[in-house]
Design goal:
With 274 residues, the chain is α/β, with parallel strands linked by helices. The chain has eight helices and twelve strands. The strands form three sheets. The protein has a five-stranded mixed beta sheet with strand order 3-2-1-11-12, with helices on one face. The chain has a five-stranded mixed beta sheet with strand order 4-5-8-10-9, with helices on one face. It has a two-stranded antiparallel ribbon with strand order 6-7. The radius of gyration is 17 Å and the shape is globular.
């Protein structure tokens, strides 16, 4: 019995199946954690979604920004992007069931002293606060205001966490952090336009996990989202987005012994990572 955490799949179903063979995944005894962004970029988002749903309680998934973009597309509140690869999902006979399943996934998973999130946590949050915010934001995503909230994901805004925010502003900023955070400025503003490697970040923009005094620093965290970061192990965190959709690889971390497995991508790359 083993638990594996997989990086961003992005519709790379063939590479996913090869990685599962490599790690000898047994759905009867093993478990999978997925860091989000199951869909888009790669060619087989529908197959990935159906596979994940079929696993039932053998899989734990947190929502990524591309998963939320799919929901936004279905609700008619997300702008169609040039590299979208979601048409097959949106036209599928079982789309409503798949989208309901996706909508009810968490933003943060915490178990046995380890936390999984798609993008990151704001430095001002300790783990208890982050978990409370995740649960609050998930309730909004399952309520009537979900389309309005998901629509904000398409805006490149330098979101900033501060005290005294309204309920709406609090969940809006929290969602941006859970799903889109990479780097942050000293004043707490997210560097919304940057997605490259840390060495090329704008002046003053630090990786969220490298901010001095980060309040979640005592808890190991696994995350995805940042393909230009590649595999990252340090600062108490593990980044697992190794750019499968960009023609690089799909990565798995076995939690039992922290061993890394990587499978080269077989799908055509989705243009340049930059």
């Amino acid at each position: 019995m083993a638990t594996f955490v997989l990086g961003d799949i992005h519709g790379c179903f063939d590479t996913l199946q090869a990685l599962l063979r490599q790690i000898q995944f047994d759905r009867r005894t093993d478990r999978l954690w997925l860091v989000g962004d199951l869909v888009n970029r790669g060619p087989e988002s529908l197959a990935v979604l159906r596979w994940a749903v079929d696993l039932g309680d053998r899989v734990t998934v947190v929502l990524g920004n591309h998963d939320l973009h799919l929901l936004g597309r279905a609700w008619g509140v997300a702008v169609v992007k040039r590299r979208d690869a979601l048409a097959e999902v949106l036209a599928a006979r079982d789309r409503d069931d798949l989208l309901h399943w996706l909508r009810t996934r968490p933003l943060l998973h915490r178990q046995d002293g380890l936390v999984m999130v798609h993008a990151g946590l704001l430095p001002a949050w300790d783990m208890d606060k982050a978990e409370r915010l995740a649960r609050e934001t998930e309730r909004w995503l399952r309520g009537d205001d979900a389309p309005r909230l998901v629509e904000t994901m398409g805006r490149k805004v330098a979101e900033r966490w501060k005290g005294g925010m309204s309920d709406w502003d609090r969940v809006r900023v929290a969602l941006a952090a859970f799903a889109k955070l990479r780097t942050i400025q000293p004043d707490g503003r997210m560097c919304a336009d940057f997605s490259g490697p840390p060495a090329e970040a704008p002046k003053g923009c630090l990786p969220w996990f490298a901010v001095p005094g980060r309040r979640s620093a005592g808890t190991p965290i696994v995350f995805g989202h940042w393909a230009a970061l590649d595999l990252w192990r340090g600062d108490g965190v593990t980044g697992l987005d190794t750019g499968c959709a960009w023609g690089r690889s799909l990565t798995a971390l076995r939690l039992d012994d922290r061993k890394i497995f990587q499978e080269p991508a077989v799908e055509e790359p989705s243009e340049s990572i930059r």
